[in-house]
């Protein structure tokens, strides 16, 4: 998955031997610059919307809905 920049994977399970038996998934997300504060990726953590019971897609929450910094 990491070697091919053109292929897309949604909800690819990471081998449990690498995660300490926890269920961990790798996926692609599309980031719209207009949803980032300052329109640049400057945060190390961003809020994501995940609804695995409805879709395999993951969406970044627009910054206007992010909590304010403390």
How large, in whole angstroms, is the Cα Rg?
14 Å
Give, in order, the helices and strands. Answer: EEEE
The tally of domains stands at: 1
Count of helix runs: 0
Mean pLDDT: 81
Oligomer: single chain
How are the strands ordered across the major sheet? 1-2
Helix content: under 10%
Structural class: mainly beta
Shape: globular
Q: What kind of sheet is the major sheet?
A: 2 strands, antiparallel
Unreliable residue stretches: none
Work out the strand percent. 5-15%
What would you say about this model in short?
With 70 residues, the chain is mainly β.
Structure notes:
By secondary structure, this protein is an all-beta fold. The protein has strands at about 10-15, 25, 50, 60. The chain has one domain. Helix content is about 0%, strand content about 15%. Strands 1-2 form a two-stranded antiparallel sheet. Strands 3-4 form a two-stranded antiparallel sheet. A hairpin with a 7-residue loop joins strand 3 (about 50) and strand 4 (about 60). The radius of gyration is 14 Å and the shape is globular.
Give the SSE map.
Elements: E1 12-13, E2 25-26, E3 48-50, E4 58-60
Antiparallel strand pairs: 1-2, 3-4
Features:
mainly beta; 70 residues; two-stranded antiparallel ribbon; 0% helix
């Amino acid at each position: 998955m990491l070697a091919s920049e053109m292929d897309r994977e949604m909800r690819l399970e990471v081998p449990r031997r690498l995660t300490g038996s926890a269920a961990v998934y790798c996926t692609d997300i599309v980031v719209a610059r207009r949803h980032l504060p300052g329109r640049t990726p400057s945060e190390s953590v961003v809020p994501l919307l995940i609804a695995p019971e409805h879709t395999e897609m993951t969406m970044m929450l627009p910054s206007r809905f992010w909590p304010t910094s403390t």
